Amino acid sequence: MAKLEIVAKTADTWAMLRASAEAASRDEPLLASQLNAVILSHADLAAALSFQIARKIGDDELGAMSVREVCRDAFASDPSIVAAAEADLKAVAERDPAIQSLLQPFLYFKGFQAIQAHRVSHWLWRQGRETLALHVQSRMSELFQVDIHPAATLGSGLFFDHGTGIVIGETAVVGDEVSMLHAVTLGGTGAERGDRHPKIGRGVLLGAGAKVLGNIQIGDYAKVASGSVVLKPVPAGCTVAGVPARIVNCPTGDAPARTMDHTLSDIVYDFVI
Asked: In order of start, what are the domains of the chain with their CATH numbers?
């Protein structure tokens, strides 16, 4: 894994992905046709990504070819979408010790795929094509069990580990380099309208089952322990845990989302945030 981390940071991501697909095609001939269609027949990451999203979320109402054209339009209009996908792939390579190549997240990890589908739905939302954006959200939720409102804003270099059960509300903002595990909720606290969802800072780690509720700020490089319910802002660099969440450590560390360190300090501060 150390070698994959180094290569993912320095080499061309598309070249790495193609090399992995070529090796897998030789090793497993039964998947050679799929690997050719999804990756090897394309000229660049944008083309392969549009094909992959389309083959996943295309359905009887909105065919794969139509989805692919939407993706192509989105990528041409906003190249930062593809750049963010590349950063997400590198994030998985850096933070997930289980993967052997970039092929795994690109083809099989629903957290990665849900993020990429969301980026297209978010582009549609910003174009005023809200009904189509909501259709993509619905398909993403059905397929990946990840429900992200198309208006929510996501940064780059994200890692949604496992993905199942993640819910992100309409006015939520997720900064760059964030890692979150399954069953995380970034939700509201009631039926109020307007800006009502959390703002997650850069490099934050959200443990499995963490619930962050309301229009509150989670500071850069903070850590939310698994199963916690956070109802008040969390200072930058602090760790919170419990129901309701309490500060258990400050500072947490330089980069909890990168290290994926879910351990907690033995010292518990005696106040609720």
From this structure: 1-145 (1.10.3130.10), 166-273 (2.160.10.10)
Cβ distance 246 to 226 under 8 Å? no
Dist CA 140 CA 142 (whole Å)? 6
Find tokens 């289980």 and name the residue.
Answer: 98
In tens, the pLDDT along 189-242 reads 988 889 999 999 999 999 999 999 999 999 999 999 999 999 999 999 999 999
Q: Closest Cα partner for 40 from 13, 71, 65, 19?
A: 19
Which of 62, 184, 46 shows the shortest CA–CA distance to 133? Answer: 62
pTM of the model: 0.92
Which residues partner with 246 through β-bridges? 241, 272
Looking at residue 206, its pLDDT comes to 98
Tokens matching residue 212: 């962050």
Q: Cβ distance 125 to 150 under 8 Å? A: yes
What confidence score (pLDDT) does residue 141 get? 97
What pLDDT is stored for residue 192 in this prediction? 83
- Residue 199 pairs in a beta bridge with 173, 217
**Cα–Cα distance, 21 to 33 (Å, whole number):** 11
Q: How far apart are CA 47 and CA 80, in angstroms?
A: 14
Q: Encode 34-82 in three state secondary structure.
A: HHHHHHHCCCCHHHHHHHHHHHHHCCCCCCHHHHHHHHHHHHHHCCHHH
Please state, as a whole number, how many other Cβ atoms lie within 10 Å of the Cβ of residue 27.
Answer: 9
For tokens 């500072």, name the residue: 251
The sign one gets for the Cα dihedral 217, 219, 221, 222 is negative
